[in-house]
Amino acid sequence: MMKERGLPRSLRLMFSGGVAVGLGLLAHSVQAQETKTDDAPQMQRIEVTGSSIKRVANEGVSPITIIKADDFAKAGITTASEALGTISANQSQFTTSTNVGKGGTVGASADLRSLGSNKTLVLLNGRRLANSAFDGSTVDLNIIPIAALDRVEILRDGASAIYGTDAIGGVINFITKRSYTGLNVSGEGIIPSQSGGQEGRINVSGGFGDLDKDGYNVFGVVDYHKQSKITASQRGITGYVPSLGLSQTSGNTYPANFIDTGNGVAGNPLLATGCDAAHLKPNAKGTSCRYDYSSTIDVVPETSELAVIGKGTLKLNADNKASIEYLHSESKVTQTVAGDVFAGNGSDYLLPSSSKYYPGNGITPAVAGLSGDPLSVNFRSAGFGGRVSEAKNTADRLLLALDGTMWGWDYKTGLSYAVSKAQETLVSGYLNNDSVRAALLNGTLNPFGPSAPGVYDTVKNTGKYLDAKTTISSIDFTASREIAQLPAGPLGFAIGGEYRHETAEYDIIHSVADLSESTGSSTSQSQSGKRNVGAVFTELSIPIVKDLEAQLAVRYDDYSDVGSTINPKIGLRWQPAQNLMIRSSYSTGFRAPSLYELNQPASTTYTSGSYNDPKLCPGGNVGPGGVEVRDCNTQFFTQTGGNKNLQPEKSTSFTLGTVFEPVKDVTVSIDYWNIKIKNQIGVISEADIFAEPAKYANLYVRKPDGSLDYIVQTNQNMGNVHTQGFDLGLGWRLPKTGLGDFAFSIDGTYVTQYDYQSEKGGAYLNNLAVYAGGVGSTPGVVFRWRHTAAVNWKNGPWSATLQQTFSTGYVDANNSVSAPYDTHNVGSYTRYNTSLTYTGIKNLTLTGGIKNILNKKPPASNQVDNFQIGYDPRYGDIVGRAFFVRANYQFF
Q: Structural domain of residue 698, as residue ranges?
């Protein structure tokens, strides 16, 4: 058996899970001081994320963070993405809220090292899940059954030789309970101090059979979570933020703007009275009305998640067991965005002078200078309410597995099938474009105010318009043992392999999609793709001399569509003293373009922000051939989609770190990391395209009259990325006091470099502490410093935690505004959370707490890459202060 010189237990826990203490793991720190007695059972060999070789101690060559699931409850954490938000290496928080208004059924994802969520490999019990069907490059974290988890292990150095070549940013392994006996019920409620956003969760766990005594165990968990929506008005969110120089408004308004097709006169019936209607404002020149679409959306959509997982394990003999595991999970997101958009732009959506709604015909105020010819209207269907859509993701996985010991080998093998399905449904507020044109011409639709009852039913468009499915069928095996006894210790060896068949289908339901242009799919075509992937890997654990161990691993992957690749990993672990360990690793990575990145159906929809056409409205001033309501400060069309010519991403990763105990009860970890990526896959941001029109001239597609038809944002290989920095951890258990036990912990990440190329061979651009376009496929910022700190207290049945999360400020997205507002800096951001737990009643655990105690608002930002304007939803908490209570009862 692999047996290593032992670190003090506190140091072992710090080494394997330094970040986890930020959640309030006083119990772990207290246990760290326990001494081993003669009666203590012999430690068993375990497999830890990052190695396939079992060993007694859980220290290896790779930096690992471990979060215990019991601590989710103490912190009031209700989702997997929220738990990962406490990890300093996971800077961006891609939650359901960040995807409002973007279409598709994207849920929540992780993004280690800010390299993009597609470079973080997410596993459940060490095996892959199917990627989310409508963002098929990453797993939707909303499907993770948080109530069934035992722990989460985060490998921060990639280890692609073991788990897959695509683990460039790191590996997140969600590990469920191995077995469970009894019946447990828990419920939780979260109530924000402001309106909206209430949450509820209930879960039931039950199981029977003792593996050791009965030879079997069967258990299951049912978990349900729901959160109500938060509207923009409930948090004062608006696209009009004068203090930031932001006027993210639209020329497609309600009441409508118009262009007289006879003489070119443009205006709005309410312009003379100052555009005095809800969500309407005059432009800076007072020449047109603008619609504040950002003030009408849901900044947090209504969501619900249901997860069911069951596992049965049969002990075949003393050393071997068989198991079957099934996961079913589904999430539903209902979101509201601004009313449907109809841009006449001088030639379409014509309102004839015979219409009773024509200005001056008795209902709509007259406008001077009209020729009597039809008006081309630019309007929104706000009179029929906002656009409401429902996105539904479902995930299933069936796993049959064998594991144990045979002929001196530790082995495990499994056969699994995983599927993810997604669909998008129009619920209300979407209109049939052709029906709208007809209703304008026949005079039944009023673009300037409420229409008669029944008109909505003649123009509405509802039903499912997008349907997608991804699958993974796989078989895998791993075997390990000690194959020789060297002078410094046993030589450990592991070998393994897997075979996967992956498919992806993206279906456009044209009977619905074609009727509403704002779905973005009216001109799209269904796409599909598939591939086979075969892989073999091997690993050696070599004791070089006493207290110095090397890990050598290599992986061969063969992709049926992009070819083969070999990726090694080399690691060293040196323990020169009982209270000191030094570790280092080097590995290479290879990420093939996902089937989604290759086959994503082309979609043409509106930009998130409003811009000026650089040719027809340069600097916001109408140029020759320009029309203000069409070309100035408006949302243009953008085309996104897959690219079958994408090349694989390749990477190198290096880490060097130490864990030591300078004085008793104080542990410190420092890890340096350095990652380089070639051929990063992504898209040029819309803000960059409009900020540098000469550079990106080939991404502008114009109509015959010279007006802008759309910009191109399809997937492409953008160039290289180089990032490096340090992970820092500190744990301190204070001396015992009469008031109880106290502990302090902090986990932080300090980034020293993040440079990227926006195209192959281009200049390197800085994304560190600057909002820019190098963060994976989505523009954003890489924080120079981010940490989670906690003070933990325990006294008998009482325990409490005070937690702080902090991130430094940065240079804002200043290319989205003009002088004098283009020098804005986003301030640092600090939040405090607290909780109190009581276990003094038999079988009952009660927890209460406050999230965001000081009700800290997200710092002001002028970014326009998300529909939420005035702040960045990826880096701030729009919910605000929230109170939570939780009760857990163990029946037997």
A: 603-640+683-714
